[in-house]
């Protein structure tokens, strides 16, 4: 179970790190022009950068506390934060009638929820 949690955590961290970095370095207009980037039109440039920063911080929070052994309770808290971020993403895509994006967000939500459950419960770093 611990190995499965680490694998899922690593995959989530890579996905959120990549998505966050793209949101941080690409201009809003280029993000909007990309496939599936229409949601950017609903947000200002600062909000898109803030979402990117939250994703990068969430990715770091999934891995670094557990690897370094410093405040490992931050791992499940980061996972819960990413669950909340995905709920917001699903609401945005629901309003825009983007069903495919909702499915992707639901997968990320389920994986982050699994990490939160596993690290708060049976495979806690403190247990």
UniProtKB/TrEMBL annotation:
Keywords carried by this UniProt record: Membrane, Transmembrane, Transmembrane helix
Origin: domain of life: Bacteria
Transmembrane segments: 6-25, 46-64, 70-92, 99-120
UniProt-recorded name of the protein: DoxX family protein
Membrane topology label: Multi-pass membrane protein
Subcellular location per the Swiss-Prot or TrEMBL entry: Membrane
């Amino acid at each position: 179970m611990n190995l499965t949690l680490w694998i899922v955590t690593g995959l989530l961290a890579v996905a959120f790190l990549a998505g966050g970095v793209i949101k941080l370095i690409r201009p809003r207009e280029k993000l909007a022009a990309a496939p599936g980037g229409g949601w950017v039109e609903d947000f200002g440039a600062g909000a898109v950068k803030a979402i990117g920063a939250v994703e990068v911080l969430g990715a770091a929070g999934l891995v670094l506390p557990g690897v370094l052994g410093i405040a490992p309770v931050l791992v499940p808290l980061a996972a819960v934060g990413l669950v909340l971020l995905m709920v917001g993403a699903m609401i945005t895509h629901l309003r825009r009638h983007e069903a495919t994006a909702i499915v992707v967000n639901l997968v990320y939500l389920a994986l982050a929820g699994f990490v939160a459950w596993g690290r708060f419960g049976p495979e806690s770093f403190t247990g």
